[in-house]
Amino acid sequence: MTVVESIMMTVASIVPNYLMGIITGAGIQGIMLLNGGYFRLPNDLPDPIWRYPMYYIAFHTYTNQGFYKNEYEGLSFDNDRAGGPPTISGNEVLRSFWQVDMGYSKWVDLAILVSMVVIYRLMFWGIIISVEKVKPILKFYMAASPKQSSMILENPTPISSQQEMV
């Protein structure tokens, strides 16, 4: 939940309208949810965009993997498959069925999530600071831009030659 709040804070600092911020944040989180490995397993995601950058950027990836590791590691289940061993370990279920990366523990997943919170909060802070510093500079240069010169005429209405003679 803290990661979601941090993402929404970052989006809110970029988008000027609150309604557009909600829409943009929901879109970002929807894309992350689709690529997090819950709806489609990691090996089923297309490689160029959806797997390599998006799968590893999505916080759902590490949330799901940490949850699955917490629940299935160390357990043993009955195997209903013909010709297989009578039981199957939770680690094998994670590796083969859920396609979870077992190269690290659930605590690494938690550390990645905490680091995402820190990174998004730093992005929020950086955007706020840069807007505070850049906005007055932009206002100054826009106010100091060359203005159109206007001549003040004594009589701005055109006078025809006949009126001059009268």
From TrEMBL:
It is a multi-pass membrane protein. Residues 3-72 form the ABC-2 type transporter transmembrane domain. It is found in: Membrane. GO terms for molecular function: ABC-type transporter activity. The chain crosses the membrane at residues 18-39, 110-131. Its main location: membrane. This is ABC-2 type transporter transmembrane domain-containing protein. It comes from Gossypium lobatum.
